[in-house]
Amino acid sequence: MGFFRFFRSNKEDTSAKLAKDRLQVLIAHERTGRGGPDYLPMLKQDILDVIKKYVSVGDDALSVQLESQDDCDVLELNITLPEESAQPNQPSEEAKRRAMERRQAASKVT
Amino acid sequence: MTKTIVVTSGKGGVGKTTTSASIATGLAKRGFKTVVIDFDVGLRNLDLIMGCERRVVYDLVNLVNQEASLHQTLIKDKRIENLYILPASQTRDKDALTIEGIARVMHKLRKSEFDYIICDSPAGIEKGAKMALYFADEAIVTTNPEVSSVRDSDRILGILQSESKRSKMNEEPVKEHLLITRYNPSRVQDGQMLSVDDIVDLLAIPLLGIIPESPSVLDCSNAGKPVILDDESAAGQAYSDAIDRLLGESKPHRFMEAPKKGFLSRLFG
Ligand SMILES: Nc1ncnc2c1ncn2[C@@H]1O[C@H](COP(=O)(O)OP(=O)(O)OP(=O)(O)O)[C@@H](O)[C@H]1O
Ligand SMILES: [Mg+2]
């Protein structure tokens, strides 16, 4: 048991307690992802990649939820877009995209 | 009626083979005609633990591929009446098994009037483990008091609930049992190890038994004897209790307390 452990009175900061707390959170999280189709993580990544072509967002900007209702499954997407770029004097991603499209279109008209 | 029980865990090295050997032996000892199948194709080990490694001629893959008959493949235990071992292949890999092939084997075993089929699952959550649990009526989820083992057990429970034959056929779900192995009560008392209550609370399935960490397990493996045959050992007794509970008896759990220590040894131990 060891000298220090013997005198430690509260059970709250034992390593077993820490293990249990971590597992509780993790298992609950993993259970929610269970039962969904195998392609869900890949679908999520693909959607995220498409969004990133237009807006600069982090990996946590997209949440995907699959819910079963009576006779159909509903795929719910939540995308958190960033506030319009706060950086002064810099074009937003959206502005850059529009400009690029404009130029491409213009170069085709000869 | 034949009952098929899978011993599974997700994580490797937690005591599945040790448990399969003892559960099968315990059931046979009580008079049930029992076969224990090693599904760990490529990493055969059950034969060693059961002490029949020198008698293996044909294996599960031969049987699945219809290269040998059931009669040729089953090894009859020399100590216990009614106990048979179906060894895994050493030279093939897990892809050598198919659900259809295993289904044929299960059918033959049912026709041979086995009471229990115990399936020793390989580690992991891949094809081999899924094959071992597919036909299960009951599952013994073997868990060590340790974070990664508990997490993997929870994943295997998810697979049992969605990929077993019973779940696919919309039959009554696989009956789940929690078996905590390599339990070390004094480390639990010191707060270093997850307790029985912690694990039951996290996984939320009925507790079949607690097998203490015990040196006799290694001694018995060395001798090729399932530890349940060692009546003197705590692990052997704990497995016997688990058999009683599996057969429906209610028995208080033992081996949860650390042996009492004196003040000085607690201080400096
Ligand atoms: N109760 C116990 N006390 C002490 N040692 C044990 C106990 N149970 C199992 N062991 C030891 O743990 C090791 C792994 O056991 P075993 O081979 O049964 O695990 P497994 O889950 O089948 O492993 P794998 O995933 O590789 O198939 C062995 O060395 C065994 O002797
Ligand atoms: Mg094994």
Keywords:
heterodimer, A: 110 residues, alpha+beta, two-stranded antiparallel ribbon, 15% strand, elongated, B: 269 residues, alpha/beta, binds adenosine-5'-triphosphate, binds magnesium ion
Any chance you could write out the topology, listing elements then pairs?
The complex is a heterodimer of chains A (110) and B (269).
Chain A lengths: L2 H5 L7 H18 L7 H15 L7 E8 L2 E8 L13 H16 L2
Antiparallel strand pairs in A: 1-2
Chain B lengths: L2 E6 L7 H14 L4 E5 L7 H5 L9 H5 L5 H4 L1 E2 L6 E4 L12 H13 L4 E5 L6 H8 L3 E6 L3 H17 L1 H4 L6 E9 L1 H5 L6 H8 L3 E6 L2 H9 L10 H13 L16 H6 L1
Parallel strand pairs in B: 1-5, 1-6, 2-4, 2-5, 6-7, 7-8
Antiparallel strand pairs in B: 3-4
Helix pairs in contact in B: 1-12
Bound molecules: adenosine-5'-triphosphate and magnesium ion.
The site of magnesium ion (MG) has 5 residues of chain B, from helix 1.
Structural write-up:
The complex is a heterodimer of chains A (110) and B (269). In chain A, 49% of the residues lie in helices and 15% in strands. By secondary structure, chain A is α+β, with helices and mostly antiparallel strands. Chain A has a two-stranded antiparallel sheet with strand order 1-2. In chain A, a hairpin with a 2-residue loop joins strand 1 (62-69) and strand 2. The relative contact order of chain A is 0.08. The mean pLDDT of chain A is 76. Chain B is of the alpha/beta class. In chain B, 41% of the residues lie in helices and 16% in strands. Chain B is built from 13 helices and eight strands. Chain B has helices at 16-29, 46-50, 60-64, 70-73, 99-111, 127-134, 147-163, 165-168, 185-189, 196-203, 215-223, 234-246, 263-268; strands at 3-8, 34-38, 75-76, 83-86, 116-120, 138-143, 175-183, 207-212. An eight-stranded mixed β-sheet of chain B has the order 3-4-2-5-1-6-7-8, sandwiched between helices. In chain B, a hairpin with a 6-residue loop joins strand 3 (75-76) and strand 4. The N and C termini of chain B lie far apart (52 Å). The mean pLDDT of chain B is 94. The chains are: A alpha+beta (110), B alpha/beta (269). At the A-B interface, helix 1 and helix 2 of A face helix 7, helix 9, helix 10 and helix 13 of B. Bound molecules: adenosine-5'-triphosphate (ATP) and magnesium ion (MG).
